[in-house]
Design goal:
Layout lengths: L1 H18 L15 H5 L36 H22 L1 H10 L20 H12 L12 E4 L11 E4 L11 E2 H7 L4 H15 L3 H12 L8 H18 L1
Antiparallel strand pairs: 1-2, 2-3
Length: about 250
């Protein structure tokens, strides 16, 4: 899987270099852009969903768009746009000529032909509150290899057609500790419920980071649920984890 990702990233870089003239000024990347977005043309990378407001203990709403680059000065804009079109055409042709390799790249999580679609224009659905919660908890227990849980999903469709009509939100396997292939987010929630042991381990870690004593922890749980830890259910453990994470965030 790692070899597949390296191959397609290298291929994308070679084509981009060959299609852009030597005097084109590369767009300056915003500081918070990931390295993946800096080297991958259309077809590589991800689209991000928009969170529902006020449904969970997550952070601010993200816009339904890929991270935009800073505007270029004319005539560099036209040259860059021409290069992007040519690169897209190359990958479209490559997909037709090498469908098995593109399917393998998609299966490893590194190729998404729908990465640049306008999510609003195509009517991409909003995430359900339960999906947002599952992603957030999965990130907090260490199942997702990202700081922002939304980075672990993308709007895509399966091969061989990569049909927009079949597109939905998938969990990227290369950004998880438990998947080998992309899985529909809805299916991942059903197939991989987060066990209580993982929740309690994440809770213990955050209590330790807060520097709380056993008495402080016991009091906090009682004030939150009006019952001892021994009586807590799965939903209680999840809420406790959210509350502790919120406390840690407020201290940073």
């Amino acid at each position: 899987m790692a070899e597949t990702q390296q191959f397609f990233v290298a291929q994308a870089q070679r084509e981009s270099v060959s299609l852009v003239s030597a005097d084109v000024v590369a767009p300056e990347q915003p500081e918070d852009c990931s390295s993946e977005g800096a080297v991958m043309p259309s077809g590589f990378g991800r689209s991000q969903p928009q969170r529902r407001s006020g449904k969970t203990a997550l952070q601010e709403i993200r816009q339904l768009s890929v991270v935009s680059q800073q505007p270029l000065q004319e005539p560099d804009v036209n040259l860059a746009m021409q290069a992007e079109v040519e690169v897209e055409a190359f990958f479209a042709q490559y997909q037709q000529e090498h469908p098995e390799e593109m399917a393998l790249a998609w299966s490893s999580g590194v190729y998404n032909p729908l990465a640049q679609v306008d999510l609003l224009a195509v009517g991409a659905r909003y995430l359900e509150p339960g999906e947002e919660d599952w992603l957030a908890v999965a990130q907090m227990v260490g199942w997702l290899l990202v700081e922002d849980e939304l980075d672990a999903i993308y709007f895509t469709a399966p091969p061989p057609d990569f049909a927009l009509a079949q597109a939905d939100w998938y969990v990227r396997p290369d950004l998880t500790t438990f998947l080998e292939l992309p899985v529909l987010l809805r299916e991942a929630m059903q197939r991989y419920p987060i066990p209580e042991a993982s929740l309690r381990g994440a809770i213990d870690q955050r209590v330790q980071q807060l520097g709380w004593s056993l008495e402080q922890r016991t009091l906090f749980v009682w004030e939150l649920f009006e019952q001892p830890e021994a009586s807590l259910s799965q939903s209680h453990w999840e809420l406790l984890l959210f509350e502790l994470e919120s406390r840690l965030q407020s201290m940073r």
